[in-house]
Amino acid sequence: MRRRRGRPAAGRMVLPALLAWLALLAVLMAPGGAAAHKPSDSYLGLDWHGQRLQGRWDIALRDLDADIGLDADGDGQVTWGELKARHADIAAHALAHLQVLADGQPCRATAGEQLVDEHTDGAYTVLPFTLDCPTSPRTLELRYGLFAAVDPSHRGLLRLTDASGTRTAVLDPNGPPQRFQRAGGDGTAGTLATLWQFLREGVWHIWIGFDHILFLLSLLLPAVLVWVPPRWQPVPRLRDAVIDVAKIVTAFTLAHSITLSLATLGVVALPSALVESAIAASVLLAALNNVFPLFQGRRWLVAFGFGLIHGFGFATVLAELQLPQGALLLALLAFNGGVELGQLAIVAVFLPLAFALRGTAFYRRAVLQGGSWLIAALAAVWFVERAFGLQILRLP
Amino acid sequence: MPPPMPLPPPCTFDITRPPGRRARRRLMPLAAALAALMSLAALPTAAEPFKPQDDAQVLLRLPAPAADAGSRALAALRRQRDQAPGQPGPAAALAWGHIQRLLAEGDPRDAGYAQAALAPWWTQAAPPAEVRVARAVLRQFRHDFDGALADLQPVVQQDPDDERAWAWIVAIHMVQAHYEQAREACEQGLGDGPDLLAQGCLAQVEAATGQAAPALARLDTALAADRDATPAQRLWALTRLAETHERLGQAAAAERAYRAALALDLEDGYLLAAYADFLLDQRRPAEVLVLLKDRERNDLHLLRLALAAKASKHPRLAAWQGMLAARFDAARQRGDTAHQKEEARFLLELQGDAERALPLAVANYRVQREAADARVLLQAALAARRKAAAAPVLDWLRESRFQSLVLAGLAAQVQALP
Questions:
Q1: For residue B375, is pLDDT > 90?
Q2: Which of A110, A167, B37, B140 is most buried, with most CB under 10 Å away?
Q3: pLDDT band at A394, cuts 50/70/90?
Q4: Distance between CA B109 and CA A90 in Å, rounded?
Q5: Which helix (H) or strand (E) holds A44?
Q6: Tens-place pLDDT, residues B38-49
Q7: What pairing do the DSSP bridges indicate for beta strands A108-111 and A122-132?
Q8: First-to-last CA distance in chain A?
Q9: Nearest residue on chain A to B45, alpha-carbon basis
Q10: What are the residue ranges spanned by the domains of chain B?
Q11: Above 70 in pLDDT, residue B12?
Q12: What mean pLDDT value characterizes chain A?
């Protein structure tokens, strides 16, 4: 049996040997090893549309401190004041370690004003920047080298967004450059991808846009009936109902397409509070019209008039989707097409059901009257909320 | 001490919790949906960048060099390295300083800093021994066990007295369930003397191979006899003792050993996680919340905090779950797989998602085969009702004769599956 504890390791310098021994002890003792699974990452977002790219780079203060030092007074705390004083150094240091080549030609980076954000492992500086490239690049080459010397396990997590959507990649500071081909803008693959993306967005936004759905439903509910004062009668033939529905849907579509296009192309702009309140009012009126019929037979006119307002609402949603500048018209058409498809899907479910039930008292009383009252009540609440900026219901 | 080298792979601990109760499973889908919603709500990604209003606002707290001995020691090591550029000794010493902190605090950035210190030698085929051992430790930290052994074996061939290298060889064999090789490495490298190092090494292998009672006796004797053992060695041996008692169902003895280890007052992430698991199994979640207070930084601890919060209906459950989800997400974005055991447990015990937990537990068990790895795979297979997935664990239990009441109970339940 051998005992060698305490023996200096192999006659090297005493201090390293001692430290090595201490480390051994630490190792021997720490049975399983703890592992916080948050190694060093930076988050690099790039928006790739045309010659100028917009970037946002979130870099952990801990990593910056380990590399260039942030804690000026050495008190173990990095304050906003200390950080601000280093903003220029941070921007220069970071951007010097990110080379972007557009079709082989370097792009010039300009840093914006830095903010702060919290990620799972603490505070990060948020560095916005623009890249001015000599061409509108077809190929982008990224040479990422941040923290290469301080922490080789550091990675840059890239989110690259172009007209076709978002790609992700992991950038290794000691790895080879990475190249990305532009998918959107030119090439049919990119076009189709854009088309598909915005088509889906359109469908999705009508399905989750309760106010649009309720407006449409309010107008459609009476389509399988006819107002013969003082009461509703079922329409005799499916054809009558289909024609009525087609008129309403077409009018609504035409109207909101007009205003959606005008607003998206920047020809007309309305304050969104006004638009949202007016949409709520349109739902309220359309529902009340079923209880106290005013515009029977001319509901398509109502659909057209208020459809103009709803188009502005869609435009707000579309604007939030980050339109591809190169393919604006395409995105607009695809989004509008998606809205129509989503609408048709609703009609396809509604019409057969309503037609089958049209002769029942249940449909006339519960669905038409009751449903319209409910819709009217909800719309009234929306209207008050939107017009006066209150929060009454927690609904979408 | 048994495995003189506690593997610091991110994930080497023993979990021993009783099987989940069936009745609860019925509510699982609902609970899972709610939890998913809550964790979505808690995701920090929703935060917007902001501009602090006050210059004095503190954004980051670091261990202040003036107040923190560890940081001072690292700064000194860095200075020595800088004064002797290109010398492997000081560079390896700096790397070991970071590895030491990695083991204590579990911050993987230290693995990166250690690697940086070794950069000039990192890609060499046969760097100097001190560099090579450090590189092996970092490799095994990323679960590259073969790469680590490829670095360690030449070191001990050249210098059979290198205990540190031997200790890591044992630890890697243990985590891979290669018990014969572990025993040989103990005897070859650490001898069979009465000291805690040698005895603990042997006891750890015994405890894993059907000889838990002799292992306990060996540990007790060596702990009492070896007056020279350092506190860190005692902590390691007491942790092995506690875990072995725990597996045998001797809760009171396990508790005494855990408390004796904690009383040494050394920072040890693994010990805290292991004791937290013990408390969770004992249905004492409130004590876990106290034990791990303010330790959310370490994922191992955060997971246990969330489990304790769930067991005690603590209001921070949603926030902790959200943090865990975000961290696993971040690891996935990097392509890390070193966290599979924890993520499987997270999915299984917090999200109630056995279908997603099972593949992770299976993949983890291909790499790591300790009791904790076995347990999460048995639990996931049981919850997903997939007996075949657990076959490697059932084989291992039979062949190793590993003693654990919890694992045996789970294995019996899995075997009863159709």
A1: yes
A2: B140
A3: low
A4: 20
A5: strand A41-49
A6: 333 333 343 589
A7: antiparallel
A8: 75
A9: A119
A10: 283-336, 337-418
A11: no
A12: 81
Is the pLDDT at A383 greater than 80? The verdict is yes
pLDDT at B136 over 50: yes
Chain A residues with beta carbon closer than 8 angstroms to that of B92: 16, 20
Identify the helix (H) or strand (E) that includes residue B414: helix B405-415
Residue with tokens 């819709």, as numbered in its chain: A375
Report the residue count for chain B.
418
* Best of B16, B82, B102, B109 to mutate (most A CBs within 10 Å, chain A): B109
pLDDT tens-place string over residues B229-281: 999 899 999 999 999 999 999 999 999 999 999 999 998 889 999 999 999 99
Task: Tell me whether residues B108 and A38 touch, CB distance under 8 A.
Answer: yes
Contact B230 A25 (CB under 8 A): yes
| CA distance, residue B222 to nearest chain A CA (Å) | 14
- pLDDT tens profile B277-294: 999 999 999 999 999 998
**B46 near A CB under 8 A:** no
Per-residue confidence at A188, pLDDT binned at 50, 70, 90? Answer: low
For chain B, the straight-line distance linking the first and the last C-alpha, in angstroms and rounded, comes to 41
From A74, which residue of chain B is nearest by alpha-carbon distance? B64
pLDDT in tens, B187-206: 999 988 899 999 999 999 99
> pLDDT at residue B55 above 90?
yes
Among A225, A224, A163, A207, which Cα is nearest to A188's? A163
Long-range contacts of B327-333 (CB under 8 A, 24+ apart): B327/A37, B327/A38, B327/A120, B327/A121, B327/B299, B327/B302, B328/A37, B330/A38, B330/A41, B330/A119, B330/A120, B330/A157, B331/A37, B331/A38, B333/A41, B333/A157, B333/A168, B333/A170
Dist CA B238 CA B223 (whole Å): 8
B300/A36 CB distance under 8 A: yes
Given an 8 Å threshold on Cβ–Cβ distance, is B273 in contact with A34? yes
The one-character DSSP state at A364 is: I
Sequence-separated contacts (24+) of A203-206 with Cβ below 8 Å: A203/A338, A203/A339, A203/A341, A203/A342, A203/A345, A204/A338, A204/A342, A205/A314, A205/A317, A205/A335, A205/A338, A205/A339, A205/A342, A206/A338, A206/A339, A206/A342, A206/A343, A206/A346
**Nearest CA-CA distance, residue A84 and chain B, Å:** 8
Instruction: State ipTM.
Output: 0.76
Find the length of chain A.
396
The whole-angstrom separation of Cα A5 and Cα B200 is 14
What pTM did the predictor assign? 0.64
How close does chain A come to B23, measured CA to CA in Å?
33
